[in-house]
Amino acid sequence: MGDAAGAHDDAPGGRGRLHGRLLQVLGGVSAVAALIALWQFGVFGEGPDRDPVDVIEGVETPSVPDGESESEGAASAGAASATVESPSESSAAATSAEPSSASPTPAAPSETASAATEAAAPASCTANLTLENAWDDSVEVTVEVVSTGSVASASWEIDLDLRDVEIYNHWAMRELEDGRYGSEDWNGRLDPEENAIAGFQATVGDHAELPDAVACTARA
After folding, report:
1. What is the torsion angle, in degrees rounded to the nearest 10, for the CA atoms of residue 167, residue 171, residue 172 and residue 173?
2. How far is it, in rounded angstroms, from Cα 169 to Cα 182?
3. Does 75 map to a domain?
4. Range of 182's domain?
5. How many Å apart are CA 216 and CA 195, to the nearest integer?
């Protein structure tokens, strides 16, 4: 009886000690939880003594799609970065795009001299007279007009205002005025060294003069 009673008396004391230990454990856990909460609040909280964390913006790293190897992804990233122009390259491109102030290359002296000579050389011609027939008071004369210039002529005129010579018939040329005759529409253009044949019949006096050549004027 005594032993049973002693065991019965000891049971409440043992339970009390167990409850005391549990309370100690719970108190320690609560303390640790409180410390963790305080640490998190100090680091991540928005306290008045802590500056907000700035987000640093940088070059976005391209993501590698599924199925693409790392080497291909790196190559794509390198190609993307290569398209970014540096300020120096942009300045160089802008400078090269400015219009050049260099003067145009002048023409060669020989070309300039040749063009000036051609522009200064007008068309020219000569007119030669040949006596074909002669009668008592009249003659028949052939007129040969030759282009002597370096450019083609578009028309020509000859001076047949001769002493004691009166033309009453002519061919392959038309009468102008003051004893001058000009080319027809079909024989006025003469290339260099090309000729045109015309002629006339005239009465002559005692003092008639029939030269071998007369004045000729060509127009280009």
Report:
1. 30
2. 14
3. no
4. 125-219
5. 12
pTM: 0.47
The answer to whether residue 185 sits within a structural domain is: yes
Q: Is residue 186 part of a domain?
A: yes
Residue-level pLDDT at 51: 53
Residues 134-187 pLDDT 10s: 999 999 999 999 999 999 999 999 999 999 999 999 999 999 999 999 999 999
Q: In this structure, is residue 182 part of a structural domain?
A: yes
Confidence band (pLDDT; 50, 70, 90) for 29? confident
Domain containing residue 133: CATH number: 2.60.40.290
Instruction: Say how many domains are in the chain.
Output: 1
